[in-house]
Amino acid sequence: MKAALVVAGVLVCGAAHAEPSIWDVAREPATGRDYQTLVAVERMVARDDSAWADPTLPERFMRAALAVIELAGGTQSSDARLLYVAGDLLSDPMVGRDADARALLDRALGLDPDSPLAGRAWFNVAIASARLGDPRRERAAYTRALERVWEPGFRANILTNRAESNMVLGDLDASVADYRTAIALGDRPDLTALAHYGLGVALERNGDLPRALEAMAVARAIHIPGVGSALDLPSVFFVPAYDVHYYRALSALSAARDPKRPELVAAHLLDAGEAWQKYLDLAVPDRHRWVDHAKRHQATTLARLKKLAPDIKRRAAAARRER
């Protein structure tokens, strides 16, 4: 599970710099063009931030800003600031040109590694690497981002994502440690919920199911306005995509621990069974690392459901329809 929850436009709006003098332009004509391109793009993205009334406008302004850069030859520029901005736009999920984004950001970081934009750039390199299926580069980029970013909420976002990279690479102890640090730093409900969801999965995969279900229960209890579950946030994606069913299955198992309402327990067990099956349908052919875990949980879930009385199952089905 990866989350790109930093505020859109932060990098671009911080990229403005002093207008080059006539002598600067005389020495290097491209500096004037690059400055004007940056100013135009900054205005477009700022306009995007105020265009919330029409849901189609953000993507349109994003793509227009990128077109301005590309038509002006900005992607071939030697101005690191312009490359940082171009890479930021290319890595946005509304654009999704991850390979191009990573290449431009690598160039920008090589030209000006100490830029105040470097932390956000390393984060974007990591996000692009995740979507490109390169977890080792992803983890390394998050580590570099942590060397440059000090804002607690952003660090919590980075640590949550690096924890997932560690999990993908099989380093579960490091994953658990990163999730716990992210929880300690997190100052927003969405990040806190996502870190608890991730911690639950990492603990289960590391052999600690009781604490995993406790972490899942905390995550479930955090309501996110507009979506309910943090797993449904549009900024959240899973690698591989079907791993979301693993998270949902464990979450449902955590909710099935309350013995006071047997019909609700059964409803959550039904949810868990369906989610495990959805995961297995895709993970088995893919030979995903955690298939055996899911098979054991699915067998246990089905066994618990089999023991329930028929009237409880009927009430469970009714409870699910009412939700």
Quick overview:
By secondary structure, the chain is mostly helical. It has helices at 10-13, 22-27, 30-49, 57-71, 80-91, 98-111, 118-131, 135-146, 152-168, 172-185, 189-205, 209-221, 243-255, 262-286, 291-307, 310-322, and strands spanning 2-3, 236-237.
Please give a structural write-up:
- The chain has 323 residues and is mainly α.
- It has 16 helices and 2 strands.
- A two-stranded antiparallel sheet has the order 1-2.
- Helix 5 runs antiparallel to helix 6, helix 10 runs antiparallel to helix 11 (189-205) and helix 14 runs antiparallel to helix 15.
- The longest helix is centred in the last third of the chain and has 25 residues, at 262-286.
- The radius of gyration is 23 Å and the shape is elongated.
- It starts with a strand and ends with a helix.
- The model is unreliable at 7-16 and 22-26 (pLDDT under 50).
Entry keywords:
323 residues, 2 strands, 1% strand, 70% helix, mainly alpha
Question: What's the gyration radius in Å?
Answer: 23 Å
Largest sheet: 2 strands, antiparallel
What percentage of the residues does DSSP assign to strands (E)? under 5%
Number of strands: 2
Give the oligomer, counting copies of the same chain as homo and different chains as hetero: single chain
Low-confidence stretches: 7-16, 22-26
Q: Going across the biggest sheet, name each strand in turn.
A: 1-2
Distance between the termini: 26 Å
Q: Helical region count?
A: 16
Briefly note the structural class of the backbone: mainly alpha
**Mean of pLDDT:** 83
